[in-house]
Each structure stands twice: as structure tokens, then as C-alpha cells.
Amino acid sequence: MTTLLDVQGLNAWYGESHILHGVDMRVGEGETITILGRNGVGKTTTLRTIIGIVRARKGKLTFAGEDMMQVPLHKTAQRGIGFVPEERGIFSTLTVFENLMLPPVVASGGMTVDEIYELFPNLYERRNSPGTKLSGGEQQMLAIARILRTGVRMLLLDEPTEGLAPVIVQRIGEVLKQLKKRGMTILLVEQNFRFASRIADRFYLMDHGQMVFEFPVSELPQRMDTLHKVLGV
Questions:
Q1: Quick check: 173 and 192 in contact, CB under 8 A?
Q2: DSSP 8-state assignment for residue 112
């Protein structure tokens, strides 16, 4: 499998706070990878550092063979990486359709609006509703959907199921499976490893700003004791 994202010895800081301590990770093209870990171990910071929001960083970070460490934040999406943050970033005064059309298309191969509405029927029904009228689940759907228009090759998702009803969690899982079938590469931060186990190819377990080990989904049953211990569940 061709490596799309290669991370080696990645360190990151928030001011004086050293958050990432030499993160090593690789993501193959078309893979779905889940980063597991307790709150505060550096999962979100890993995504924010990859996308370039965290600029106090050092190490090796390549995407599709290109060194991303010097690429400005506003050009990261143009390289083919999309980010859906935990806070979603929906514009409350804009309609669903207007939110959907905000990000520019950066490459061919993105989904059409009709394809997005087929994937997310709720968004079609609420297409003229302002962001303030959306439920948490609908906001999450919209946050994912507007990235899919842009033609990015890789999707970074930060806690997409956090605080959502089980029926919405199930729907998002189905959507991610469909995206995987389309060849989308997905890097997912998630504490719900039962949800993640239904969509992930491999897992990275993170603790204290490092990846402590990596394993394929087929090894999940024999890793459960370690996961319970590290995740505290």
C-alpha cells in the first residue's frame, strides 16, 4: 500500500507546553486509521499539527511525498487534506446550502451537491435552514459534507461521535464506510473504540504525546485488556 501521510519524530508545543513528544505514524492511501487515547494525551494536537494549525512543531511530515512542514496553513487544503474539528465550525447565520458551498474546490473528484444530499438526506431536508436550527448530529453531518465537495484526498476527523445520539453515530459510521469504498483516506480521533472498530483498518494508541503501539483491527480482541487499562474504560 502506498503511504500517503508519513509522520516521523513529530514534536509540537503550545507556548511553553511541550505536547507531542516524537509522534511516529503512517497512513496508507485509502486506509481508515483511528487514534485512540484518553483526553489530554495529544490526539487533537496531532491532527492540528498535521493540518498546520499548530506551527510550533518540528520533525518530519510528508503528504503524497511532499514536505508539509513549510507549507502555509492556507495552502494545506490545496494539497488535499481536509479537517473537521470537534467544534464543527458551522456558520450559524448561513443556511445549510450556504455552509455547504463555502469551501472552495481544490481538486477534481469531489462529491457533487446531489451526491452529498444522497449521502446525508437530513441535509437535503434542511438545506434552507440556518445553522442555528440544526441539531448537533446535523451540524456534524454538515461539517463532514462541506469537506467532501472540495476534492481532498484525506479527511481528518476529530471526535465525530462526541455527544451524539446512537442513531446519528450509526449513520456517521455508515457514511465513513461509504467514503472508504470511494477510496477516501481517513484519519480519525475517537474515544469510542467500539464505533471505530467497525470502520478502522488500523489503530494507534496514544499516551503522553506519543504513539505507544499500533495494531490492525484483526488484533482488537486480544488487545482489549491493554485498551481497558490505557483508556480507563
A1: no
A2: P
Cβ-based neighbour number of residue 130 at 10 Å:
16
Burial class (CB in 10 A: 0-12, 13-18, 19+), 188: buried
**Is 36 buried (19+), middle (13-18) or exposed (0-12) by CB count in 10 A?**
buried
Q: Give the number of other CB atoms < 10 A from CB of residue 62.
A: 16
Enter the pTM of the model: 0.94
pLDDT of residue 228: 82
Res. 98 pLDDT band, cuts 50 70 90: very high
Q: What is the DSSP letter of 100?
A: H
Q: What is the dihedral of CA 51, 115, 193, 23, to 10 degrees?
A: -20
* CATH fold of the domain at 3-86+155-231: Rossmann fold (3.40.50)
DSSP element (H, E) containing 136:
helix 136-148
Grid cell locating 224: 482489549
Q: Which residue has the higher pLDDT, 70 or 22?
A: 22
Distance between CA atoms of 171 and 50, rounded to whole angstroms? 27
7, 180, 199, 204, 214 from 207: Cα distances, Å:
17, 27, 22, 10, 12
126 Cβ contact partners less than 8 Å away, ≥ 6 residues apart: 96, 133, 134, 138
Q: Which residues contact 17 (CB under 8 A, 6 or more apart)?
A: none
Q: What is the pLDDT of residue 233?
A: 57
Domain boundaries, the chain: 3-86+155-231
Is the CB of residue 63 less than 8 Å from the CB of residue 154? yes
